[in-house]
Specification:
With 208 residues, the protein is an alpha+beta fold. 22% of the residues lie in helices and 33% in strands. The protein is built from 6 helices and 9 strands, in the order H-E-H-H-E-E-E-E-H-H-H-E-E-E-E. Helix 2 packs across helix 4.
Length: 208
């Protein structure tokens, strides 16, 4: 196929194609603990999610998400050396997804963000409580995956809320770790909590 020939372009062409870049600061993240996790959270340490969408917690988690990363994937390839002389071919045979996705959150004076994800992880390993954890013979049995895995979302949009948006749905997601959160007598900064999620794959969808 021949390469297209260069052609003259006007300012309208530039505006329509490259002068409306997407901004990194317009997005929302939504985290949906499964019903079993919600029941576990309710009433623990004065922490109540409610039975459904709850402004004081669910909305706070969404608005507190300071940083997220759109996930990536790659193709695993198999090398063929002998089909054509002097040529090495690589054929794709599997799509590989990132193993984790990280989210950073602002922590408020109630520490709801920390409690939210700590309790989710506590449910996964079926911890009975802080008093039981102090016993010398403390033990636990991890819950079944279908009880703690859920779908989480990153929705990318633009500041005018118009045009097409981009939604990433993470399938079978659950928090796998919480990064350490340094505190110091140095100049005060906002406390950040970074949570890493494991997931099976992601699905992209968009709306105009």
């Amino acid at each position: 196929m021949a390469t297209p020939k260069p052609r003259a372009r006007n300012v309208a062409d530039l505006k329509a194609n490259i002068l409306r870049p997407s901004l990194t600061s317009t997005y929302e993240c939504h985290f949906n603990p499964p019903p079993a996790v919600r029941s576990w959270m309710n009433g623990r340490r004065g922490f109540d999610l409610g039975s459904g969408y709850n402004y004081t917690v669910d909305e706070k988690v969404t608005l507190s998400c300071r940083e997220a990363a759109l996930p990536g994937s790659s193709l695993a390839t198999h090398t063929l050396d002998n089909d054509h002389t002097g040529i090495t071919e690589r054929h794709a045979y599997r799509r590989q997804y990132d193993t984790t996705s990280s989210f950073s959150f602002y922590v408020d004076e109630r520490y709801d963000i920390i409690h939210f994800f700590e309790n989710w992880i506590s449910f996964i390993v079926n911890e009975d409580g802080s008093r039981d954890a102090e016993r010398d013979n403390y033990n636990y049995r991890v819950n079944f995956p279908n009880e703690y895995k859920s779908e989480i979302f990153i929705r990318k949009f633009e500041r005018d809320y118009k045009g097409r948006d981009l939604q990433y749905k993470f399938v079978n997601a659950y928090p796998i770790s919480i990064n350490q959160m340094p505190v110091s007598y140095d100049a005060s900064q906002i406390l950040l909590c970074t949570v890493n999620f494991n997931f099976s794959r992601y699905i992209i969808s968009g709306e105009r």
